[in-house]
User: What shape does this take?
Amino acid sequence: MSGWQDYLDQHQSRFEAELLEFVRIPSVSAMPGHMQDVKRAADWVADRLRGAGMEHVAVLPTTGHPAVYGDWLHAGPDKPTVLIYGHFDVQPADPFELWDSPPFQPEIRQGCVFGRGASDDKGGMFIPILSVEALLQAGGQLPVNVKFIFEGQEEIGSPDMPPFIAAQCERLACDMIFSADGLQWSADEAQLIMGLKGLVGVEVIVEGPAADQHSGLHGGGINNPLMALSQVLASMKDAQSGRITIDGFYDDVVDLTVEDKEQIARVPFDEAAYCARLGVPEAFGEEGYTIRERIWGRPTLELNGLTGGYQGDGSKTVLPARASAKITCRLVANQKPERITELIRAHVERHLPPGVTARIEHLAGDADPFLVPRGHNATQAAGEVLREVYGEAPYVTRVGGSIPIMTLFLRELGVHGVMFSFSVGDENLHAPNEFFRLANFRRGQTAYCRLLETLGG
Ligand SMILES: [Zn+2]
Assistant: This one.
């Protein structure tokens, strides 16, 4: 077969040894004491990119932990330029006593590498480096132009990445983006993640009298901010249908198509087990949609916290001066956090009972939703390759949460990223005894080679 397969097979034990060496660097981005280790991991990655045949390799400073860049741009202008992303920082490893082997002294047991970062994301991000090395060694060139960008602060929320990516737009310019950080559906089933939800949060504050009052002296004379707030909140969602009743809330929502619904229905889901696992008597959500459709493809509004009045033991006959509620909405394309904030503000104004005032405070953490357009070429290529290497078409899924780097790339580089990673959610990511399956380490190398070949036509 192809020369790169032989190269990968012949060098697999070296690659495994290198992965162990990489995991041995305790690049914990959250802990100031490990700052030099994150830098050391960056240098390791830079060296390894050079070893694989990448050019223009550089450790790039940010205001925090550095990033690493490298490229190979000789496929010609008629070939696409592919940007591959991953991260070399890891989560803290404590509690250390719960690990069967020390987190930074990785071991191979039962076909898996055990160590902090083995799966998230050192094993994952190392895979495409090995694939380009194999392609270059076997064929002397790559089928497409390739750029790599690896960050060292993903596990602390990438605080310096927005200005960094904005400043590096030219260097990172590309036609397609693949993230080597992400998850497959299970050890032997692939998935293609088509959508991520956005987020917006507000606090609604309702105020009445200047200070708490005696409910016997003033109850019946003035309105109660806690009751008024409850009435406003209750008016935001229909108790039976689960529909959000804020005017205009659904206006910008891209509806699930028949095909979307078919793809979601293909993903196995056991409603009874789901309810049992969460300890609820039954599921609840927006009428007319399945649970998966609601979680993946429909916007939500959740009350996260409610404060006001007396909350101690026994009773206190108080008429509170103030009450507040924190609300977050998970958004879907093409909803915008700013517009949803305005709609909530207008709803509160319209539904506020007399005798109290209300204001809305916008909470930090806005994220735009992300939806891969139908027919997106990079996603289709990824789907074909996953079908080939897993022997079965991938599940087409979405995620109820947000992945900020994907929306950042879309905003700054104008490209929808595709998650193309070979980790699995059961590999104790962020927990003791993190591991990575070596079978998927090897499978991922084939997949990245085939992906680049497919993209090169
Ligand atoms: Zn990760």
Summary: The chain has 14 helices and 18 strands.
